[in-house]
Design a protein that fits this description.
Elements lengths: L12 E6 L3 H8 L5 E5 L9 H13 L3 H4 L2 E4 L8 H8 L6 E4 L5 H18 L7 E5 L19 E5 L3 H7 L13 H17 L3 E3 L8 H14 L3 E4 L5 H7 L4 H16 L5 E4 L2 E4 H12 L4
Parallel strand pairs: 1-2, 1-8, 2-3, 3-4, 4-5, 5-6, 6-7, 7-8
Antiparallel strand pairs: 9-10
Helix pairs in contact: 10-11
């Protein structure tokens, strides 16, 4: 069994599209998002979920194998009645991956793996090859388990949610008077970043609901990228170009990273190297290598 499916080289932008709208799924799939997530959870009303499942499966089956690699599905959370039905309906369409919402910890990813494996075997899909991204802060108790995901089967990325977390806590708002996330939600962002690093998977920033404020989106993308995030969720196609540009290394960053890698390659025994008026050590080399890995095909 494959415990860690291959992550797409590009995973900057993750665009949601409601699974009960063929028009919106078509528009999202035809756009520039690195990954499109057809949603059966929050975007679909309770009585519309069966039809959404069938619509997503039909949509996926009409796509080529290459196209399906970037078409993922957000199923319903494991503590509800829908997850097994979601998976049984959509897995014959061979989506590129599954988003698991309201994950309470590593055990939820393991449970999802147990549900997926027999379906894959029945359908002739390589067991373990369907990737998973987990939403890890949407319920209060999950805040205490963000560091437990290392080695979780299928896990390819981790992201977080502020809206459901506010609901779980009973907060009136997740924002302060300045419009920025208040402490609890900045903590959720930080714990997700640390948890993803501990699990050796990319951290993906949560949505920005104000899809008309593209200048604000750009600033936020740049901030979280500096912090270590590798991509961001999107709720509107207009957000995708901003996210893609912000999470794409610049030519200057690439050139500097290549120079750092070359310096250490030319001095394999050196622990530190003077360069450009600075002292570079092995963490600088590691960061340069990680940046270059983002542009490899």
């Amino acid at each position: 069994m494959t415990d860690r499916p291959a992550m797409p080289t590009r995973f900057r932008s993750w665009l949601f599209a409601p699974g009960d709208s063929e028009r919106k799924m078509t528009k999202a799939a035809g756009g520039d998002a690195d990954i499109v997530i057809f949603d059966i959870e929050d975007a679909v009303a309770e009585d519309a979920k069966p039809a959404a499942r069938e619509g997503i499966r039909s949509f996926l089956l009409a796509c080529s194998e290459e196209e399906r690699l970037r078409l993922w599905v957000r199923v319903n959370p494991l503590d509800g009645p829908h997850t097994a039905n979601d998976l049984a309906a959509i897995l014959p369409g061979r989506p590129g991956g599954i988003m698991l919402p309201k994950s309470r910890g590593r055990e939820d990813v393991e449970e999802l793996d147990r549900l997926l494996t027999p379906l894959e075997m029945e359908l002739g899909i390589e067991p373990g090859s369907t990737a998973v991204i987990a939403l890890v802060t949407e319920v209060a108790a999950a805040m205490f388990t963000t560091g437990d995901y290392a080695g979780a089967p299928r896990l390819c990325a981790m992201t977080w949610g502020a809206e459901d977390l506010a609901d779980s806590i009973g907060a009136l708002s997740n924002r302060g008077e300045d419009g920025e996330y208040s402490f609890t939600y900045e903590l959720a962002r930080s714990l997700t970043l640390l948890g993803a690093a501990a699990a050796s998977v990319p951290a993906i920033e949560t949505i920005d609901g104000d899809f008309r404020n593209l200048d604000g989106l750009k600033k936020r993308c740049e901030k979280v990228r500096r912090d270590g995030y590798r991509g961001m969720l999107a709720i509107h196609p207009a957000q995708v170009p901003i996210i893609n540009a912000a999470f794409t290394p610049s030519e200057e960053e690439i050139a500097e990273a290549r120079e750092i890698v070359a310096l250490f390659a030319a001095n394999p025994g050196a622990g530190t190297i003077g360069h450009g008026g600075k002292m570079l050590d092995r963490p600088h080399l590691s960061r340069a290598q990680q940046l270059l890995a983002q542009i490899e095909d």
